[in-house]
Amino acid sequence: MSKPRVVFDHVWKKFRIGERHDSLRDLVPSTMRRMFGRMDATELQEQEFWAVKDVSFEVHEGRALGIIGPNGAGKSTTLKLLTRILRPTRGTMAVHGRVGALIEIAAGFHPDLTGRENVFLQGTIMGMSRDEIRSRLDAIVDFAGVSRFIDTPVKRYSSGMNARLGFSIAAHLSPEVLIIDEVLSVGDVVFQTRCVERMMEFKRQGVAIVFVSHNLQAVSGLCDEALFLKGETLAYGPTSGVLHKYLEASLAKAHEDTGAEIHIQDARLTDEQGRAVSVAHPGMALVLHLSCLVREPVRDVDLSFVCHRSTDMLAVYDGNFHDHEVGFSGQSAGSVMDIEVRFRANLTRGQYHLGCEIMHNPTQRFIARLSPAAILTVEESRTYEGVADLAA
């Protein structure tokens, strides 16, 4: 395998909360402690915290790493360390090659310079000649869609215009490493699609990509590996497995026992032979087993079976089974019902989760709810995008 373009080797980074010195009496002791005190980089002092703690990863040519995690997990800090905006407390890192980076909207832009002037400024910072920048200027402006405003100071730009121009600069100045933070959170659907297509093209050309996003569907489609970060590494490896662990941790299980007439006690997903399933292929026959405690008989209730694509919460399926199909009203108080919902995973690749709800129709009252009842990864290599597997 080729030498990695990006190396992050056991990196730690700490910050101090609210470090302010309002008087000379406070400032002098603090300065003396820093200059002459025995400061151990491995230990936290008062009001310090680890934003990044012992994180390691590599990204090779033509590969993309997605970094995911909740807000405050250290994702943007990691990118600022990679671009040398910040220095690590411990550990080492290296980025080999010309870097195109967009880690904040308009990061690196001078607000009083025009869009055109900022293109030349960014290109010069990346080590390109004026002739190289000039030869790419039209393509940059066209991709960003800001031709009417290219000679307007960027402080007059909207956040979407700033993001489009920033990504376009990073994407057109021949990077060997592309570092992108949340570019898909700004801009319309057409621009977001063009960004993803452009990054896919870079991968084919051998560019190494580090991509931070809350758009899990984009991470799933673009990235070969993923890093689940929450200050420290919770999962690192092939994207599908990391997304599965992230979704397990992120999807709050609605499993509260409200004491209503029926309680969904448990659920498990298996194949037709009863073997536990977490990974399936399109069209695979599956069974969701539900265990329901009937505290007291109740009539005219429906069991709802729901499937969502977890990466964007798209409702893939929402179907109801009526009481005469399930038989809740025929149960005696204290009985336990074992229900099997049989279905086929006619789905394209991605992460999905299943849920079940029981509703009392006369009052439109939810008696019981369990979500996620199961989390499922569908693996296949035929499709490019979409949800339904049409078995073409």
Overview of this protein structure:
The structure is a single chain. The protein is built from 9 helices and 17 strands. With 392 residues, the protein is of the alpha/beta class. The strands form 4 sheets. The protein has a 6-stranded mixed beta sheet, with helices on both faces. A hairpin with a 4-residue loop joins strand 16 and strand 17 (365-378). The mean pLDDT is 86.
Q: What would you say about this model in short?
A:
This protein has helices at 24-36, 75-82, 115-125, 130-144, 159-172, 189-204, 216-222, 239-250, 323-326; strands at 6-16, 48-59, 64-68, 90-95, 99-102, 177-181, 208-212, 225-230, 232-238, 262-271, 279-280, 284-294, 301-309, 314-321, 335-345, 350-360, 365-378. With 392 residues, the protein is α/β, with parallel strands linked by helices. It is elongated and about 80 Å long.
What's the total helix number? 9
Instruction: Give the termini distance in whole angstroms.
Output: 36 Å
Outline type: elongated
Largest sheet: 6 strands, mixed
Order of helical and strand elements: EHEEHEEHHHEHEHEEHEEEEEHEEE
Structural class: alpha/beta
Using only C-alpha atoms, the radius of gyration works out to: 26 Å
Number of E-state strands: 17
Low-confidence stretches: none
**Range of strand content:** 25-35%
Mean pLDDT: 86
Helix content range of the residues, please? 25-40%
Main sheet: strand order: 5-6-7-3-8-9
